[in-house]
């Protein structure tokens, strides 16, 4: 049998061909049965006739399974042989089986003597070849695999032993079970001196007793704790440590171990200066977990030096530490801690300015521009309110039920799809330039009678070799595209299958750009094209804010959070996997499918607008700026440096999110006639929502989208100014899209021209 992969937590292990040692004094049907079973299972098999040869063979080969004949004591003592083998180090992870006699007329005997001798289990004699084979297979996937994983723990202990961080593992009762050499060295103990000691038996400083009680309240409920405190070494010296304690779930689903990772603070010489902040910070970590009054049971945070005698400074430091300390130190926490430290020695004007900076950092909307309260463009305010919030909660019982009993189209209910080879000439002609940005999606919409997604999907997916990657047939892909398109609402003026086809086209275009191709793997390309295809499936033509205000079933299902995007992603997989005829994933290997699924879901959820500025800012700071810095430093030709920026897993995620976001709202970067058509369609959908909100008595989310008063040019300029310009500047800097930026500039001029003439319509009068 070839080597097989075994998953052990986050480790991926390679298990070689298993080795079996048969210890039988003579050949008989039983030994022959096991020999045949080994051959069938693909295991390497050795046979020993005597205890001496068995022990010698085992010490040479280190077998995974040993099967000892326990039926005939006149040949050798099977239990004595097992004990001999168990005295050797290699047997620690070996499974040893005793073959015992079958006694139909005798009472069942106890297995305890066999266990005491070191046997793992017994096998009641049965010379059936298939019985022997089944026994070996059960061992392979049961005890042998378990022992294989335990053997892999040696590598983990090797890492722990060599780690420079001090690591301590205790039981749930805080009895020390393991400490690594770094811990013993740091704390001044000898090898093995701490094992089986209660933590309370270890010399501690007067604060640690309080810490243990409060830390326990956090870690006992399964949360990590992180903070700094002083600990005493064996010789009584005090050292400052940065400590993280992680609870580990074990038997019975309960916390069975605590792993403590400690590191000496680099700045122990400044311990006096930072003592107060550290103690306050650790305490607030605990109080965050306990969710109790900040002052209850608090530690003494009085300054130990004259530098902290200023009451105002002391209050500022301790209050900032309380507000910003977190159970797990996030990057923003590190920034805040740096600012807190800077305030220590800053003059009052600087300290006050840093206080204002901290006030800004306290907001959860760190990436969202804050709109002013006076003289703000109502179009911008309404767009932001409509697209970036989840609506105002409505207290009345008046609910809007969205498609409560709606049935979704499935493969069996649709007509037989056409083949890529016999597409009608008019449709073929409409798709001739689909690789170009100026491709006209509306011409294809007309040629296909509002079914552009199937046809464009077939062509683009064929160009990218999607069927080959997924190992699915073209007919399965056609059925899938047809099912997805059937579940877009053709009654929507904007969010229909033409919009999906348009986003698919933009996604394919972006994937063809050189910088994008350098960055993404084939699985990323497949995920991007599928995500674009399904990203708005079953869209009701209403915004998330509308659904939340209306108390729709979808809003309730998804807790008013990313309602539509969550629905699009979930429904896409439901439609795909419920019928084998359209299940494009059915032939994928499980782990690859899970990876692909995660990327698709992440990209669909990225189209939700509430995190728009977060995605754009992260892209700028993690992609644009590092690449620009490399270019400025003359490293533009340094392929390795650029590759490091582009290929890190975190940055690839940001690039995929940015790609689908730009594809989703690329209408202002299309040629002018397409831009105008899309503007008319989205405006009509918003008008219809405003009409329905007024009919239903719901809050009107975007009042400016009143079909009688709305200025479409103003709404387009507001959308472009607020959402589009910065995002496409960043994307153009990365992907090099001069034609898109030229269209964007022309379209801005067009809308400004209409607005300057106070025209509220899509086109000037003839």
Task: Count structural domains.
Answer: 3
Strand content: 5-15%
Give the spatial strand order of the biggest sheet: 4-3-5-6-7
**Strand count:** 12
* Shape-level CATH architecture of the largest domain: Orthogonal Bundle
Computed Rg: 34 Å
- Tertiary shape: globular
What's the pLDDT, averaged over the residues? 82
Q: Classify the secondary structure makeup into a structural class.
A: alpha/beta
Distance between the termini: 79 Å
Unreliably modeled segments? 200-207, 267-329, 392-405
Estimate percent helicity: 40-55%
CATH superfamily of the largest domain: 3'5'-cyclic nucleotide phosphodiesterase, catalytic domain
CATH class of the largest domain: Mainly Alpha
Number of H/I helices: 30
Largest sheet: 5 strands, parallel
CATH-assigned fold name of the largest domain: Catalytic domain of cyclic nucleotide phosphodiesterase 4b2b
């Amino acid at each position: 049998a070839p080597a097989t992969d075994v998953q052990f937590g986050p480790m991926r292990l390679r298990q070689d061909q298993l080795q079996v040692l048969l210890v039988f004094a003579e050949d008989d049907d039983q030994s022959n049965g096991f020999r045949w079973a080994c051959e069938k299972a693909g295991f390497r098999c050795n046979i020993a006739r005597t205890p001496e040869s068995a022990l010698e063979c085992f010490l040479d080969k280190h077998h995974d399974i040993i099967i000892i004949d326990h039926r005939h004591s006149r040949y050798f003592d099977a239990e004595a042989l097992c004990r001999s083998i168990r005295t050797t180090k290699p047997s620690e992870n070996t499974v040893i089986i005793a073959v015992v006699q079958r006694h139909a007329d005798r009472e069942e005997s106890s297995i305890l003597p066999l266990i005491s001798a070191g046997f793992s289990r017994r096998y009641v004699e049965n010379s059936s070849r298939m019985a022997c084979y089944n026994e070996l297979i059960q061992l392979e996937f049961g005890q042998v695999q378990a022992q294989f994983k335990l053997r892999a723990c040696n590598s983990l202990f090797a890492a722990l032993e060599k780690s420079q961080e001090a690591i301590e593992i205790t039981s749930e009762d805080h009895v020390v079970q393991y400490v690594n050499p770094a811990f013993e060295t740091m704390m001044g103990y000898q090898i093995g001196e701490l094992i089986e000691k209660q933590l309370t038996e270890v010399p501690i400083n007067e604060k640690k007793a309080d810490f243990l009680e409060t830390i326990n309240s956090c870690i006992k409920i399964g949360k990590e704790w992180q903070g700094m405190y002083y600990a005493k070494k064996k010789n009584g010296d005090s050292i400052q440590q940065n400590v993280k304690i992680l609870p580990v779930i074990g038997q019975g689903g309960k916390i069975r171990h605590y792993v403590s990772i400690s590191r000496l603070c680099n700045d122990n010489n400044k311990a006096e200066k930072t003592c107060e902040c550290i103690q306050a910070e650790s305490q607030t970590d605990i109080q965050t977990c306990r969710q109790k009054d900040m002052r209850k049971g608090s530690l003494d945070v009085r300054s130990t030096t004259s530098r902290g005698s200023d009451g105002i400074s002391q209050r500022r430091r301790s209050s900032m530490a309380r507000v910003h300390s977190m159970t797990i130190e996030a990057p923003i926490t590190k920034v805040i801690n740096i600012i807190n430290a800077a305030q220590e020695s800053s003059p009052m004007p600087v300290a006050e300015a840093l206080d204002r900076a901290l006030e800004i950092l306290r907001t959860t909307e760190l990436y969202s521009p804050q709109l002013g309260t006076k003289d703000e463009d109502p179009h911008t305010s309404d767009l932001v309110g409509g697209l970036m919030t989840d609506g105002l909660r409505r207290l009345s019982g008046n609910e809007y039920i969205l498609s409560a009993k709606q049935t979704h189209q499935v493969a069996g209910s649709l007509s037989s799809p056409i083949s890529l080879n016999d597409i009608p000439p008019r449709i073929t002609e409409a798709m001739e330039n689909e690789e170009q940005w100026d491709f006209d999606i509306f011409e294809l919409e007309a040629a296909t009678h509002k079914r552009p997604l199937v046809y464009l999907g077939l062509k683009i997916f064929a160009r990218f070799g999607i069927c080959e990657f997924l190992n699915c047939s073209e007919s399965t892909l056609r059925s899938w595209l047809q099912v997805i398109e059937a579940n877009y609402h053709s009654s929507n003026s904007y969010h229909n299958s033409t919009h999906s086809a348009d986003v698919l086209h933009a996604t394919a275009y972006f994937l063809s750009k050189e910088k994008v191709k350098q960055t993404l793997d084939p699985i990323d390309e497949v995920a991007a094209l599928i995500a674009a295809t399904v990203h708005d499936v079953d869209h009701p033509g209403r915004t998330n804010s509308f659904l939340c205000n209306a108390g729709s079933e979808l809003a309730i299902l998804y807790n008013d959070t990313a309602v539509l995007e969550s629905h699009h992603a979930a429904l896409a997989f439901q439609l795909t996997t419920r019928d084998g005829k359209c299940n494009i994933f059915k032939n994928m290997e499980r782990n690859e499918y899970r990876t692909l699924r995660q990327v698709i879901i992440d990209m669909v959820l990225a189209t939700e607008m509430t995190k728009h500025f977060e995605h754009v800012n992260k892209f700028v700071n993690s992609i644009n700026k590092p690449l620009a810095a490399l270019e400025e430093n003359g490293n533009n030709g340094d392929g390795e440096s650029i590759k490091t920026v582009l290929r890190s897993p975190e940055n690839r995620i940001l690039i995929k999110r940015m790609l689908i976001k730009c594809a989703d709202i690329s209408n202002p970067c299309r040629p002018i006639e397409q831009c105008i058509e899309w503007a008319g369609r989205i405006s009509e959908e918003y008008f219809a929502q405003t009409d329905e909100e007024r009919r239903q008595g719901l809050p009107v989310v975007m009042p400016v989208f009143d079909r009688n008063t709305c200025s479409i040019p103003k709404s387009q300029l507001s959308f472009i100014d607020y959402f589009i310009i910065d995002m496409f500047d960043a994307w153009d800097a990365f992907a090099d899209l001069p034609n898109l930026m030229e269209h964007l500039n022309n379209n801005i001029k067009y809308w400004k021209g209409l607005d300057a003439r106070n025209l509220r319509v899509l086109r000037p009068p003839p």
